[in-house]
Write a structure and sequence with these properties.
The complex is a heterodimer of chains A (116) and B (113). Chain A is mostly beta strands and 116 residues long. Chain A contains no helices and 12 strands. The chains are: A mainly beta (116), B mainly beta (113).
Chain lengths: 116, 113
C-alpha cells in the first residue's frame, strides 16, 4: 500500500506568491518523521524541512513551513514568497519509528514551476 | 563540509552489460543509502549500510545487483547484467545517524540501450 500520497503532479505559481504542496501519509506507528526534499532538474535531492510526530509546533525553515495536521495525517509544505529558483520537483517522505534503521519512503512528487 | 560525491554522473550501456557506480559519503557519516529513482517516481531504497554492514537490502534485486562498503567509508553499487528496466537515476545518500536527515549526492543517470 502507498504510504505517502502526493496528489498534485504539477503546479504553476507566480513569483512572490505562496504555494502549498499536499502530502498525506499512512502509518499506524505512533512515532514517525516527515521530510520534504527538493529536486531541481540537475538531479540532487536537497533536504528542506523535518517534522516529528511528537513535535508540538509546526516546523519552519526560512521560507518553508510545514502544515502538520496529525489527525488528518497530512503534512503539507508551504513555500512563501516563491522565487524562480524554487522551480523543481518536491518530494514528501516518511520514516516510521518501528523502522529502527531510518528507511525513508517517498511519494511520487509534485513538479512546481514558478513563473515571472 | 564536502557533500556526498558520486560518479559517474551519466552512463550509457547496452542491456546485458555490467556497470558500477561509486559513492563517497560525507565524512563521518556512518549510514549510507543507495536509492533507485525511475523517471516520474520518487526514490526507492535499494540497500542501506550501517558502517560496513548491510542493515536493509529487502528491495535489492540480488540476482543482478550487488553493493559493498568496504572499510565503512565509500561504497560501490554494481549491476550485472543490466536490463532495460534498470534505466534510472541512482542516488547515494548518507546520514550521521538513522534519525538524522539524509544528504544526497547528485546521482548517476543510467540509460540502458
Amino acid at each position: 500500500a502507498q504510504k505517502i500520497t502526493q496528489t498534485q503532479p504539477g503546479m504553476f505559481v507566480q513569483e512572490k506568491e505562496a504555494v502549498t504542496l499536499d502530502c498525506t501519509y499512512d502509518t499506524s506507528d505512533p512515532s514517525y518523521g516527515l521530510f520534504w526534499y527538493k529536486q531541481p532538474s540537475s538531479g540532487e535531492m536537497i533536504f528542506l524541512i523535518y517534522q516529528g510526530s511528537y513535535d508540538q509546533q509546526n516546523a519552519t525553515e526560512g521560507r518553508y513551513s510545514l502544515n502538520f495536521q496529525k489527525a488528518r495525517k497530512s503534512a503539507n509544505l508551504v513555500i512563501s514568497a516563491s522565487q524562480l529558483g524554487d522551480s523543481a520537483m518536491y518530494f514528501c517522505a516518511m520514516r516510521e519509528g518501528t523502522d529502527s534503521w531510518g528507511k525513508l519512503q517517498f511519494g511520487a512528487g509534485t513538479q512546481v514551476v514558478v513563473t515571472p | 563540509e564536502a557533500g556526498v560525491a558520486q560518479s559517474p554522473r551519466y552512463k550509457i550501456i547496452e542491456k546485458r552489460q555490467s556497470v558500477a557506480f561509486w559513492c563517497n559519503p560525507i565524512s563521518g557519516h556512518a549510514t549510507l543509502y543507495w536509492y533507485q529513482q525511475i523517471l516520474g517516481q520518487g526514490p526507492k531504497l535499494l540497500i542501506q549500510f550501517q558502517n560496513n554492514g548491510v542493515v536493509d537490502d529487502s528491495q535489492l534485486p540480488k540476482d543482478r545487483f550487488s553493493a559493498e562498503r568496504l572499510k565503512g567509508v565509500d561504497s560501490t553499487l554494481k549491476i550485472q547484467p543490466a536490463k532495460l528496466e534498470d534505466s534510472a537515476v541512482y542516488l547515494c545518500a548518507s546520514s550521521s545517524g538513522t534519525v538524522q536527515p539524509q544528504h544526497f549526492g547528485d546521482g548517476t543517470r543510467l540509460s540502458i540501450l
